[in-house]
Amino acid sequence: MPLPDRRELIADTAIDTVATAGLRGLTHRAVDAAAGLPAGSTSYYFRTRSALIGACYLRLAEVTVADVDRWEARYGSPDPDSAAEALAALLHHWLTADRNRQLARFELSLEAARRPELRADLHTAGLAARARAAALLESLGAPHPTSAADLLVAWTDGLLYDRLAGATAATRPAPDVSELTSVVRRMLSAALSA
Question: Where along the sequence lies the DNA-binding region (predicted)?
Answer without folding.
Answer: 27-46
